[in-house]
């Protein structure tokens, strides 16, 4: 199994480190501009989305159900953007979250660019949220570059909307975005909160990333298509498995046989 040993906090800048950094030949300050939307301060949004997919409606849902649920229960977590929105890393909470994850031996995680835009409420008539992607991707590249310079190796990019039936424009946007991000540092895992990738498995399996992370797998039929479609040279990372169903051990044995050292599993299932 891939080594996920803990990293020292000395490898990651702490939240109180306000030194400027160099990125792309220019100085990047850690102070935040109030007119920018800040990327990386998304822990509460992650919790909200995880809560949705742990409920029954998260197993087979529509985009309208997710958006309505989020707006009703977590209205403050819905990103509100403008037509000409600009973005900036939220360095303090982002670096604090990364430091905590590395100290605990976990992969740092943040909401991915497509999920962020998909969940957003954009002001203005006839505004295509995907038009903001070109302004958003360089910020993710900036984040990955700085984390790599500080010794971070892996990043989990959560794109739970891959479990939804997406329009073709969004499926194409995934391919475009991650073909751009593949040239930025860090080994990247695409993360889902529920293991049902079937609506977009073909897209997810072939993205130019290191592998896939399935946070919660509750049914064996959700894993079989992943075993068949995900190239064995990529990493398959599994989070929670249903230990009461009796099928998980057999599935893990099959996963080990297929992916070998490219299989990551949660500690409680590593034996």
From TrEMBL:
Protein keywords: Methyltransferase, Transferase
A GO term for molecular function: 5-methyltetrahydropteroyltriglutamate-homocysteine S-methyltransferase activity
Stretches that traverse the bilayer: none
Keyword Phosphoprotein listed: no
Single biological process term from Gene Ontology: amino acid biosynthetic process
Keyword Methyltransferase listed: yes
Start and end residues of each Cobalamin-independent methionine synthase MetE N-terminal domain: 64-249
Pfam families (UniProt xref): Meth_synt_1 (PF08267)
Name of the protein in question: 5-methyltetrahydropteroyltriglutamate--homocysteine S-methyltransferase
Biological source species: Pseudomonas savastanoi pv. glycinea (Pseudomonas syringae pv. glycinea)
């Amino acid at each position: 199994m891939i080594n996920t040993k803990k990293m020292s906090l000395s490898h990651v800048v702490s939240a109180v480190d306000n030194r400027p950094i160099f990125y792309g030949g220019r100085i990047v300050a850690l102070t935040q501009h109030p007119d920018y939307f800040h990327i990386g301060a998304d822990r509460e949004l992650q919790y909200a989305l995880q809560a949705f997919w742990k409920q029954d409606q998260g197993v087979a849902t529509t985009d309208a159900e997710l958006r309505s649920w989020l707006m009703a229960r977590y209205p403050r977590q819905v990103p509100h953007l403008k037509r000409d929105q600009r973005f900036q890393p939220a360095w303090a909470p982002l670096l604090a979250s990364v430091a905590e994850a590395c100290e605990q031996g976990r992969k740092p995680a943040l909401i991915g660019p497509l999920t962020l835009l998909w969940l957003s409420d954009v002001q203005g008539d006839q505004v295509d949220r995907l038009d903001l992607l070109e302004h958003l991707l360089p910020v993710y590249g900036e984040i990955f570059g700085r984390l790599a310079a500080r010794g971070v190796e892996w990043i989990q990019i959560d794109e739970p909307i891959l479990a939804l039936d997406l329009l073709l424009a969004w499926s194409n946007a995934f391919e475009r975005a991650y073909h751009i991000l593949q040239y930025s540092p860090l080994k990247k895992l695409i993360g889902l909160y529920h293991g049902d990738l079937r609506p977009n498995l073909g897209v997810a399996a072939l993205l130019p990333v290191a592998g896939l992370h399935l946070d919660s797998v509750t049914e064996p039929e959700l894993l079989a298509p992943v075993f068949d479609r995900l190239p064995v040279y990529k990493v398959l990372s599994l989070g929670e498995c249903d230990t009461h169903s009796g099928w998980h051990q057999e599935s893990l044995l099959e996963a080990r046989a297929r992916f070998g050292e490219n299989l990551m599993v949660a500690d409680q299932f590593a034996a």
